[in-house]
Amino acid sequence: MEHVDTIVIGAGVSGLAAARLLRRAGRRVVVLEARDRIGGRVWTGRDGGAITDLGASWIHGIDDCPVADATRAFGMRMHEFTVGSYQVDGRPIAYFSPEGAPLGDDAAAGFAADVRAVDAALRDAIAGSAPLDTYRHVTESAIAAQGWAPDRAARVREFLEHRTEEQYGAWIEDLAAHGLDDDAVEGDEVVFPDGYDRLPAALAEGLDVRLEHVVSRVAWSGSGVRVTADGRVVSADTCVLTVPVGVLRSGDLAIDPPLPDAVAGPLSRLEMNAFEKVFLRFPTRFWGEGAYAIRQQGPEGRWWHSWYDLTDLHGTPTLLTFAAGPAARAIAGWDADRVAASVMAQLRRLYGDGIPEPEGVAVTAWQADPYARGAYAFMRPGSTTGDHDALATPVGGVLHLAGEATWTDDPATVPAALRSGHRAACRILGEDVAIEELWARS
Ligand SMILES: Cc1cc2nc3c(=O)[nH]c(=O)nc-3n(C[C@H](O)[C@H](O)[C@H](O)COP(=O)(O)OP(=O)(O)OC[C@H]3O[C@@H](n4cnc5c(N)ncnc54)[C@H](O)[C@@H]3O)c2cc1C
After folding, report:
1. Is the CB of 240 under 6 A from ligand 1?
2. Residue 346 C-alpha to ligand 1 middle, in angstroms?
3. How many angstroms from the chain centroid is the CA of residue 95?
4. SS3 for 311?
5. Distance between the two ends of the chain, CA-based, in angstroms?
6. How far apart are CA 57 and CA 195, in angstroms?
7. Within 10 Å of residue 230's Cβ, how many Cβ atoms?
8. Rounded-to-integer distance, Cα 253 and Cα 234, Å
9. I want to staple 280 with a disulfide (CB 3.0 to 4.6 A). Which of 4, 150, 187, 358 is the partner?
């Protein structure tokens, strides 16, 4: 039986980061990856030459961010696009009223001020929330404190529902009151014109990554691990397990003996979301120039309310919208044409029947992906922010969980994945290694 120092399960950003640091420290490392590609939830499509980030696309704030440092060091071009965190304003956004008419500047500014007033009240509501309170409970108390007429309150309420869906892919009544605590954006947001997948590609250089190795069992004891992939067993002194929460909870990957309560408890309180991207490429930029995003208010926007203009990024008139939470669950299994028709009905309300049909449509299916089972994890009511870090509690001194869901400060992101891989490597090495080692040249 082959024996190595460390087996890393999963060639996403967390696994590649851990493997790279361990290898730099001279350890023998094997990365076992189920898919026929690396990158996991960082995945860039290149059909017909069109670059499409089907998984992550944004760095949500480049200040003090190791992913920004790494991508700069790897020579990846960045494009500023600071609307990726469902900001109400700060960059030009073309708002439409519930009736589908453009909202004037004053009305848009008034609406943004309303959202800010509720956000200010929300901080106290969250701080005073009970353990089982949902994000709905706290947002309702913050809205009620304003004493507004029903229509004014409704606009802000729907904004908060949509923010919950776009940020966490969850319905507002399913998310814990603290579920958006990490939502601060430090500095500009950026996206990658040449594709985010250049990051995992650079991290993977020189590593022993074995693709199409579906791990079905991890047996651990105080003396090491035995990992089974497609009937073959590899043993190691330590293991970094980076599969998403959805895979961990599915039972597809047996852990023997089962995870101890210190890890199983947090895992039971986190859940994989429903969040899909819809890209529409058009022959013309019929919506005009100058706005980063288009947003419609009101009940017609229940599913399709926000479109992001990617034209400057790739040079082709392109809108990105999201099916998030209930909408994502409802469209699961729809073909691209049906999704596009549903989105186009809303765009026609705003821009008229004369707008062109899309020439290209791409719709993701992360919910149906057996190696992801959703886009990223969110906090169920009853969870605490600390559940993320607790999920990475070392098991038996040999098994280390890593991945976006195991990092409390800004979970659900690529930076969280990177930092969690760094932490796992440091724990295995028994010393602090600078995270900059990940992009060091020699
Ligand atoms: C649609 C979408 C949009 C997103 N947008 C953003 C964004 O704009 N900004 C941002 O920062 N983050 C975003 N994210 C989240 C970000 O992509 C993830 O947080 C991050 O990539 C997770 O990295 P990871 O290493 O934890 O997990 P993964 O990338 O999922 O890596 C885990 C690996 O394990 C593999 N695996 C699973 N099961 C097995 C098995 N049985 N055997 C072997 N291998 C297995 C998987 O194939 C995968 O390669 C988005 C995600 C999605 C899906």
Report:
1. no
2. 31
3. 25
4. helix
5. 33
6. 8
7. 11
8. 15
9. 358
Token digits for 422? 């760094």
- The owner of tokens 């994989």 is 272
Contact in structure between 114 and 156 (CB atoms under 8 Å): yes
The SS3 of residue 408 is coil
3-state class (DSSP) for residue 238: strand
Residue having the nearest C-alpha atom to atom 41 of ligand 1: 215
- For the chain, how long is the longest CA-to-CA vector? 71
**Is 435 touching ligand 1 by the criterion CB < 6 Å?**
no
Residue type, 1: M
Which tokens in the block code for residue 435?
């995270």
As a whole number of angstroms, the distance between CA 142 and CA 138 comes to: 6
Residue type, 155: R
Ligand 1 neighbour 55 (Cβ under 6 A): yes
How many A from CA of 196 to the centre of ligand 1?
A: 12
Which of 184, 196, 192 is closest to 85 using CA atoms? 184
Sequence-distant contacts of 224-227: CB under 8 A, at least 24 apart: 224/398, 225/7, 225/398, 225/399, 226/1, 227/7, 227/9, 227/32
* pLDDT tens track for 56-75: 999 999 999 999 999 999 99
Closest to 205 (Cα-Cα) out of 4, 24, 432, 423:
24
Question: pLDDT category, 183, cuts 50, 70, 90?
Answer: confident
- pLDDT value at position 311? 97
